[in-house]
Amino acid sequence: MKYTITQIKGGTDNCYIISNGADAIIFDTASGENLQHVKDECSKYNMKLIVLSHPHFDHEENAEELSKHYRIPVAYNEKDDNIFDDYNSQPLKSYGIVGFVVLKLSLKVLAKTKVARPENRLFVKEGDTLKDYGFPDIKVVELPGHSMGSIGLLVSDDVILVGDALDNWIKPGMGHLYTDIEALKMTTEKIRSYGKRTYYYGHGKPTEKF
Ligand SMILES: [Zn+2]
C-alpha cells in the first residue's frame, strides 16, 4: 500500500499525518498553541487514530481535543501511562550542549504543563499493526530510553517515525534527552537494525540516514 506522510511543524516539534488517500492517522499532536493548524491538516482526511510516541506536552497536548473532535482513540504504550500523573515519574536528563539547552527550556514547560490522560485510550505494544484502523503495513515498535514507553512506527519497509528516540536538532542521531541512557543506546542500535529508511523525528527535518 502506498502512503503519504505530511509533516506538520508546530514550533520546534513535529507531528505527522500518514494517509492512504482518504483515511489517515496522526503520529503525535504538537503542543497546545498549534491546535488549529493541526486540526486544519487533519480536516483534509477521514481521521482514524491518534498515536503518541510518548506523552510529553510537545507531542501530546492536542491529543484529547482531537480524540473528542474526531471520536477516535489515542494509542500509546502503557509503560508511559504514569507520565500523565506526573512527568517526573520518568525524570529527564541530557547529554551534550544541545541536550543541556533543550532540557533547560523543556523543563520549564514540563513542570507547569499537566497533560490530560485521554478518555478514549488504547494501549499498544511492540509488533502491533494498525490494520484495524486501515493500515496493515504500519507496525508499532518500542523505542525505550527517552521515556520507558516511547514507541515509533515502521511504515512499509522504507520509513520509520521515531518520536524523540532520535532527534535532528543540529544533526541526526541519538535523542539528546533521556530517562535511561543505556536503554536509549540500545534503541538507537535497534533503529539502525531496520536498515536504510527515511527517518522522521519529533524534532528536526527528516533524513535519509542518521
Ligand atoms: Zn519527550
Which ranges are low-confidence, i.e. pLDDT below 50, for 5 or more consecutive residues? none
Shape: globular
CATH class: Alpha Beta
Estimate percent helicity: 10-25%
Count, helices: 5
**Mean pLDDT, nearest integer?**
95
- Got a strand count? 15
Strand numbers in spatial order across the main sheet: 1-2-3-4-5-7
Assigned CATH architecture: 4-Layer Sandwich
Biggest beta-sheet profile: 6 strands, mixed
Instruction: Tally the structural domains.
Output: 1
Report the portion of residues in β strands.
Answer: 25-35%
Assign the CATH superfamily: Ribonuclease Z/Hydroxyacylglutathione hydrolase-like
Kindly name the structural category. Answer: alpha/beta
Through-space gap between termini: 26 Å
Fill in the CATH topology.
Metallo-beta-lactamase, Chain A
Computed over alpha carbons, the radius of gyration is 15 Å
Explain this structure.
- It is a single chain.
- With 210 residues, the chain is α/β, with parallel strands linked by helices.
- The protein has one domain (4-201): Metallo-beta-lactamase, Chain A.
- The chain is built from 5 helices and 15 strands.
- The protein has helices spanning 35-42, 57-60, 63-70, 96-112, 181-193; strands spanning 4-10, 13-19, 23-27, 46-51, 74-76, 93-94, 121-123, 129-130, 135-142, 151-155, 159-161, 166-167, 173-174, 177-178, 198-200.
- The protein is globular and about 45 Å long.
- The mean pLDDT is 95.
- The structure holds zinc ion.
- Zinc ion (ZN) is lined by residues 54, 56, 146, 164.
- Zinc ion binds at residues 54, 56, 146, 164.
